[in-house]
């Protein structure tokens, strides 16, 4: 059976950077499932699998096609129930959605403020045109204006993770003693920033930075294997 | 067997307002457990149960004494496993801690900005002295300065719940189809504000306000039964 994860890359396909695709990479490895990753530039995504989705991740699992990182995680949990759980039960499933929405509304904009101009610079020519136009329209600022605010955004970043920092006083992972999909959700956001910018946002003794390092080591260091910018 | 919840009140003991105690009230009702609530002024808490805890909630469950709302919820889940679950499994337990830390670091300070002067005014004479001194030291501002910033704090409040708002696009409760302890955690914060201030912070069509109304109706309307300020 062929299992393919379509993910996102810039000009260098060895450095996939999408936060949502990283969530799925860790989820697949968590379940112990083999897969082939096919990093794809932004503007080639709409043609994948006969136009199945405008965005990645897309997972082909034999005859099944699934899009959206959370839906893929739910699919994996349902389809492979005897492998390690991604949610730890129905409560964990529901509350993972809250973690996703926290990451999406608070952490993703903070990463964007730091990384958006760097992401642009990683892309191939065709993607750059698409990316600049769509992101500048969304942000209401030019990439150059975003870059000018980068240092300020870096300084403000770590504080946004305060709920995570405090959670880690009680447990090694957001999911408890070991990682769950909730960890991969937040890992995805930080890995996106790491691969695209390489900036240091956490003090050495920050529990959030230490947790991120633990996540980089998970599943044979699949996250660490892709180098930081 | 005697089950007693020691909670917090001001001069009027019919209007307990502590967010942490409200979490436990809902958790006990969720488990279908009878209890006597004993609302207690701030300065009388240290004498409860031979000085067992400086803060409420304190739960006496027969011969057991437990403090701290999260620890009480864990105790109830372990002690009464055959009654409705508060966590929905181990994943839900771990991620509820994240919801608690979100509430504590983002929502509680926002409620404090709105409510702290009103809370003072609800207290008896002895408590007022303790409360003003401890809160002004903690906040670095006088209660009068806090009151002056109240309208601004009200206007800024609803946006802080954005991760909750987005979660409610997917499910009726933070815990999924029905409420879990995670709902009671955030309910506690909003009920604290409702009982002490009565201010309207949500637009009528705000899904967060609608969820809070659903929570007020839970368990025979135990939350709604205490009137807003």
TrEMBL record, chains A, B:
<dbReference type="InterPro" id="IPR036282">
    <property type="entry name" value="Glutathione-S-Trfase_C_sf"/>
</dbReference>
<dbReference type="InterPro" id="IPR054416">
    <property type="entry name" value="GST_UstS-like_C"/>
</dbReference>
<feature type="domain" description="GST N-terminal">
    <location>
        <begin position="8"/>
        <end position="84"/>
    </location>
</feature>
<dbReference type="Pfam" id="PF13417">
    <property type="entry name" value="GST_N_3"/>
</dbReference>
<dbReference type="Pfam" id="PF22041">
    <property type="entry name" value="GST_C_7"/>
</dbReference>
<dbReference type="InterPro" id="IPR036249">
    <property type="entry name" value="Thioredoxin-like_sf"/>
</dbReference>
<dbReference type="InterPro" id="IPR004045">
    <property type="entry name" value="Glutathione_S-Trfase_N"/>
</dbReference>
<protein>
    <submittedName>
        <fullName>Glutathione S-transferase family protein</fullName>
    </submittedName>
</protein>
């Amino acid at each position: 059976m062929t299992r393919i994860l379509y993910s996102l890359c810039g000009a260098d396909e060895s450095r996939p950077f999408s936060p949502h695709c990283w969530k799925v990479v860790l989820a697949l490895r968590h379940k112990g499932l083999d897969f082939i990753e096919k990093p794809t530039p932004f503007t080639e995504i709409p043609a994948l699998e006969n136009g199945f989705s405008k965005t990645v991740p897309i997972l082909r699992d034999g005859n099944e096609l699934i899009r959206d990182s959370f839906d893929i995680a739910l699919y994996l949990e349902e389809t492979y129930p005897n492998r390690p759980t991604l949610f730890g039960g129905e409560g964990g499933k529901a509350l993972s959605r809250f973690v996703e929405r926290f990451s999406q509304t608070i952490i993703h904009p903070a990463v964007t403020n730091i990384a958006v101009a760097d992401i642009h610079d990683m892309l191939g020519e065709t993607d750059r045109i698409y990316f600049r136009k769509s992101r500048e329209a969304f942000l209401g600022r030019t990439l150059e204006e975003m870059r000018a605010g980068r240092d300020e955004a870096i300084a403000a970043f770590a504080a946004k993770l305060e709920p995570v920092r405090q959670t880690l006083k009680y447990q090694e992972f957001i999911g408890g003693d070991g990682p769950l999909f909730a960890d991969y959700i937040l890992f995805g956001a930080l890995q996106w920033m790491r691969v695209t910018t390489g900036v240091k946002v956490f003090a050495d003794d920050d529990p959030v930075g230490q947790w991120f390092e633990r996540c980089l080591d998970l599943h044979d260091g699949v996250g660490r294997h892709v180098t930081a910018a």
